Amino acid sequence: MNVSESLKRGGRPELLIVTNNPRTAEKFPDSLFVEGSPPDVISRAGELLSGGFVLLSSPLPPNGRLMKNPYRSVALAESKELLCGGRDFILVSDAVERFSRLVFLPKEGKRGEDLAFMDLHLLEVAIRE
Question: pLDDT tens-digit profile of 10-25?
């Protein structure tokens, strides 16, 4: 069962995951995969805010150390409103600005696998809540 079907059965809003994490894209095949860095992922999520989606998860990681993670996944929920509140746009704008000043950790090797796992785990926690 894909993400869309499971959410429809549970009565929750339609979910869209925007990610540059191959591990997340594999686990959630309906996700929107973005080739690029975290600012690219956040920018794409920001574009979707104008198309009937709202943020379900934070565009920023929970702490400063994870800011350098080269993988970022953001969950968006479909909204009945045509435009989301300004708060989501501000959060996305702030996240893009913060991410654009960073040098991200390398994706290669065991560290890259661990970083991909952490990003996926944080997304799954956000979706459950």
Answer: 444 589 999 999 999 9
Strand partners of residue 17: 75
Question: Average pLDDT of 35-51?
Answer: 94
129 token code pair: 């809540």
- Residue 30 banded pLDDT, cuts 50, 70, 90: very high
Supply the angle between the helices 86-100 and 38-49 in degrees, to the nearest 10. 160
User: Which pair of structure tokens corresponds to residue 98?
Assistant: 């913060």
Concatenating the DSSP letter of every residue in the chain gives: --HHHHHHHHTPPPEEEEES-HHHHHH-TTSEE--S-HHHHHHHHHHHHTTTEEESS-SS-SSGGGGG-S--EEEEEE-SSSS--HHHHHHHHHHHHHHHT--PPP-SHHHHHHHHHHHHHHHHHHHH-
Tell me how far apart the alpha carbons of residues 98 and 52 are, in angstroms, rounded to a whole number. 25
This prediction has a pTM of 0.84
